[in-house]
Write a structure and sequence with these properties.
Helix content: 40-55%
Structural class: alpha+beta
Shape: elongated
Distance between the termini: 88 Å
Number of helices: 15
Largest sheet: 6 strands, antiparallel
Strand content: 5-15%
Radius of gyration: 40 Å
Length: 493
């Protein structure tokens, strides 16, 4: 309709143009011609604007997908030059190569020490010489200390070594190096409680008053205990010192907390100047409730043979808080505790509780079970006694994992599967951690807190090797769970 009107208005204009020279134009004709020209200009501008808008929209749709690819692959920044955006040569494909980032646990970045500690390390030699002069001076005044320094007696020989006069030496080291428990963030990893962190700091940094060897009588090994200030000026038993070869105690503590079992006592690694040639020793928190009648009477233990243990597993003792019958043969330990113990011991290959006779693997000639002749008892498995089955005096339903001497040098073809015998359920919380593939990250974050242990194992490289062994055993355990139909259930007791 608009076009027909346009033609009707413009035809007279064309006729007037043809006869422009022959006749004189009237005012009405000129007015019609002006209106027609104005209308023609508006139409042309409108059509041109519509065409340009359509072209721009088509071009935007054409490159919108390309910009989306770039945003997805490069994190949202568009490539630019001084003139503006660069249009790719191909309309819908952009090829971008990004260098993969190195995956590291969150807290491992904290391995960079503050400058103050670096300066302290550079002055270590001079400071050590200074403190050694102090020790020599004190030794001349105190004959007991001087004899200990010269003889360098072992802990078995020094029954009651007074370290009180050596506090100045230990304080100097603490001032220069700070605490050996490193927590650079605002809080410790969530699997460590405030009590755990407090105990770790106390074991690693407490001022030592004296170190004593306490005999427990019988065949039980002696305990090497150090006394320290408890913050309010009082002294008391604070920790037991193990041999430098028993470093698994520290690893076991962190593995226990990462898995959420919470059955081990806090443990750290610490050096004592006159014990074991100042090598790092595991120090485990002292718990008097494990000795309800005193050290001489021994710990609160459960006495079971292998046959009794297997029978109690079938009875599912104390499940749903139902008291077992007297003839059931049940101990005071809850049924779920055995599942947690078996899983924990399997990962670390601790056999001194459920398999002290080494019946479930091929022992070496230097192993204790072979030297003491326990391995020969495997012919009568049902009568082999379990060992180190301990609970607290006030909590007889739950176990306490102590003397956690594990073995990292045992290959997958020689693992002790006897530890898992009779176990039909495993704790869901623990298995979920093993399946999450975050075990390494959590162990690194946790073990990094103990600087003395971290450095004694060779730093990150040595710790990674230990975790490699645990991860291989995790794969074996998960395969065992699937192959034997082990149930994974909640065990919140």
């Amino acid at each position: 309709m608009g076009k027909s009107r346009f033609h009707r208005l413009c035809v007279p204009l064309l006729r007037l143009t043809a006869s422009f020279r022959r006749c004189r134009l009237s005012k009405r004709t000129l007015l019609v011609a002006a209106v027609c020209a104005l209308y023609w200009g508006v139409v042309v501008l409108h059509v041109g604007h519509s065409e340009r808008h359509r072209d721009r929209k088509t071009g935007g749709d054409k490159y919108r997908h390309t910009r989306g690819l770039y945003h997805l692959e490069s994190g949202g920044d568009h490539p630019q030059t001084a003139a503006g955006f660069v249009v790719p040569t191909r309309s819908n494909v952009v090829y971008i190569t990004l260098k993969a980032k190195r995956l590291k646990p969150a807290n491992i970045r904290g391995t960079i020490r503050p400058k103050l500690r670096r300066k302290a390390r550079r002055n270590k030699s001079a400071h050590s010489a200074f403190t050694q002069n102090k020790v020599d001076t004190l030794g001349q005044d105190a004959g007991q200390i001087q004899r200990n320094v010269e003889a360098k007696t072992s802990w078995r020989e020094s029954r009651d070594v007074d370290y009180k006069s050596l506090d100045v030496n230990q304080d100097a080291e603490t001032e220069s190096h700070g605490s050996s428990i490193r927590i650079y963030s605002q809080r410790a990893p969530p699997w460590l409680s405030q009590q755990d962190v407090k105990a770790m700091r106390f074991l690693a940094d407490a001022k030592v008053l004296r170190i004593r060897e306490v005999s427990r009588g019988g065949d039980s090994p002696s305990l090497l205990i150090f006394e320290a200030h408890r913050g309010n000026g009082t002294a008391g038993y604070s920790g037991t010192i193990s041999s430098p070869v028993d470093t698994t105690e520290v690893f076991a503590f962190h593995l226990d907390r990462v898995l959420g079992l919470n059955r081990t006592l806090p443990a750290v690694s610490r050096r004592f100047r006159f014990i074991h040639d100042a090598q790092p020793c595991p120090v485990v928190s002292w718990d008097a409730s494990l000795y309800p009648e005193g050290l001489a009477a021994g710990r609160a233990t459960v006495k079971l043979t292998w046959g009794d243990y297997q029978h109690s597993l079938k009875q599912r003792c104390w499940l749903k808080n139902i008291s077992p019958k007297p003839e059931s043969g049940c101990s005071t330990i809850h049924h779920y505790e055995w599942s947690k113990l078996a899983l924990f011991d399997f990962l670390l290959q601790i056999h001194n509780r459920l398999d002290q006779s080494c019946c479930g693997f091929r022992p070496r000639q230097e192993d204790v079970c072979v030297k003491l002749g326990h391995h020969a008892q495997c012919a009568d498995k049902d009568h082999i006694k379990l060992a180190n089955i301990i609970h607290r005096d006030y909590d007889s339903r739950h176990l306490v994992f102590t003397h956690n001497k594990g073995f990292f040098d045992r290959n997958e073809d020689n693992l002790d599967f006897r530890l898992l015998e009779g176990i039909k359920e495993l704790p869901e919380q623990v298995v979920s951690v093993l399946r999450s593939r975050r075990l390494r990250e959590k162990l690194l974050q946790s073990l990094f807190l103990d600087q003395t242990y971290w450095e004694s194992q060779g730093g990150r490289q040595g710790i990674d090797k230990l975790i490699d062994v645990i991860e291989k055993r995790v794969k074996v355990l998960l395969t065992y769970i699937n192959a034997h139909g082990i149930k994974v259930i909640a065990m919140n007791v």
